[in-house]
Amino acid sequence: MLTLAAGPLAAQHTSAPKQRRGQLRQQALVEAGLRLTATRRWAEVTVADIAAAIGCSVGTFYTRFHNKDAYFAVLQQLLAEVLLQRLQAFHAAPQRRRESASAFIAAWTQLIARSYCLHRGLYAAALAQTQQLPREAVVQLPLARVRLATRAQLVAAMAARPGWAGEAAAARLGFAHQMLHGVLVSAVLTDPGPLQLDEPALVEQASCALCAYLGLPRPRRPKESSA
In whole angstroms, what is the distance from residue 154 CA to residue 29 CA? Predict the structure, then answer.
């Protein structure tokens, strides 16, 4: 179950409920936002839509969140926490120690692509927001910190395999990470094709491209993930 962050960002943008019922209602509102933005752009989601998704009034929404922008900030923070939990679970899974480098890259590519697909509306809005901010502010955003963590964990995981330790390997992996995110960002913002974001073939072709760049054998087709 997703949990609402208790840190400074949540406190800054929300009115903390005092009773258990209010906490559950606030939780439900945030989870509704994550579900709605899986298939819709943030600009298309209204406060009335969010409230209706859990059967409450618009007034109830505003007793929990200062405004829609504040709600969006909390959504980003929660999504970042969820993504970090998925990353940690992925890297801690026993099969990671048994995989070849190619199989690992294929599984990792699927994990990252699925996260973009599940939360495409929220990603699109967050990416649009970055265009309005200076670089020093962008790197402090929750999803920007997740991206840095994703790259660092990729480098660390591959460094445990023969031939992938050191600065040169880290640089190659960093660019592979950038390549994948470039493809996924383009898919989220414009979905230009020929392969769409929700097509398994996109993951297959992306993992093959990354392995080719890294000088690894072509990976087998990854299994479906439940992440």
Answer: 33
Distances in Å between the Cα of 39 and the Cα atoms of 51, 102, 110, 132, 210 are: 17, 31, 19, 24, 27
Write the DSSP string, 198-226: T-HHHHHHHHHHHHHHHTPPPPPPPPPP-
Give, in order, the Cα–Cα distances in Å from 79 to each of 22, 98, 121: 21, 29, 12
| pLDDT single digits (tens) 6-59 | 444 455 555 555 567 767 888 888 889 888 888 888 888 999 999 999 999 999
Closest CA to 83 of 41, 42, 123: 123
Cα distance between residue 40 and residue 35, in whole Å: 9
pLDDT at 126: 87
Task: Say how far apart CA 197 and CA 117 lie, in whole Å.
Answer: 6
Q: Which CATH number fits domain 8-68: 1.10.10, 1.10.3470, 1.10.150, 1.10.4100?
A: 1.10.10
pLDDT given for residue 46 in this prediction? 94
Contacts with 132 (C-beta within 8 Å, 6 or more apart), sequence order: none
Q: How far apart are the first and last CA of the chain?
A: 13
Band (pLDDT 50/70/90 cuts) for residue 87 is very high
Cβ atoms of residues 75 and 50 within 8 Å: no
d(CA 170, CA 136): 24
The domain ranges of the chain are 8-68, 93-214
